[in-house]
Amino acid sequence: MYVAAVGEFIQATPVCTQTARLKAVLRLFRQARCQRVIVADGQHLVGTLSLHRLTSFLFEAEVEAPDSRSHGSEAAIAPWQQTLQELFLSAENADLLEPLYEPLVELSANLPISQLAPYLKDLEQRQYALIDQSGDCLGLLNQTQLLKFLALNPTPELQERSPGIAEMQRLGQSGEKTVADDPFKAIA
């Protein structure tokens, strides 16, 4: 009998270290054409960094670029020369609305979908890193694809834990379309 595992819903996501300089991280975002990277400290995953949060931080934070007003040995470091760790510490000291990193929960890529129920309540608020048997990060859980799969493949365990999944499954079975299914419906 086929048993689906969360590893079937991997979204390839680049990983960078906390010691990477901002310029290199921005280059990684551009080259990978992604909106989110996983930040690691050695083998430990620290969290995810979204391009949106990073750019918001750079606009909100009071990170000064060196200019003619800064004299002495403690001249400000330009943001693009700082490491992610330095930016993170700056963000912790600043009075920002959102933290720089988003929390990350590690899940085994072999975790059967039927055992995913305890994680569903936080699905929209958290990112999940999928880890292989050797402890390597494979990428992030593609939550959109997972939700589509769950809507089309009802399981009693998940329906009991998440009423939203049950509603999605009911709508999927009745053939009703949502606005996301028909982009022109919203315009008409």
Would you write up a description of this structure?
- With 188 residues, the protein is α/β, with parallel strands linked by helices.
- It has a single domain, classed as Roll (CBS-domain).
- The protein has helices at residues 22-32, 51-60, 84-93, 117-120, 143-152, 156-161, 163-174, and strands spanning 10-11, 15-17, 36-41, 44-50, 104-108, 127-131, 137-141.
- The strands form two sheets. Strands 1-7-6-5 form a four-stranded mixed beta sheet, with no helix packed on it.
- The radius of gyration is 21 Å and the shape is elongated.
- The model is unreliable at 63-75 and 174-188 (pLDDT under 50).
Count of helical stretches? 7
Structural class: alpha/beta
Overall shape: it is elongated
What integer is the average pLDDT? 77
Largest sheet: 4 strands, mixed
Tally of discrete structural domains: 1
CATH fold-type name: CBS-domain
Which sequence of SSEs, written as H and E, runs from N to C? EEHEEHHEHEEHHH
**Radius of gyration in whole Å, from Cα?**
21 Å
Termini, distance in Å? 45 Å
CATH superfamily: CBS-domain
Helix content, binned percent: 25-40%
CATH architecture: Roll
What is the CATH first-level class name?
Alpha Beta
Q: How many runs of DSSP E, i.e. beta strands?
A: 7
% residues in beta strands: 15-25%
Q: Which stretches of 5+ consecutive residues score pLDDT under 50?
A: 63-75, 174-188
Side by side, the strands of the main sheet go: 1-7-6-5
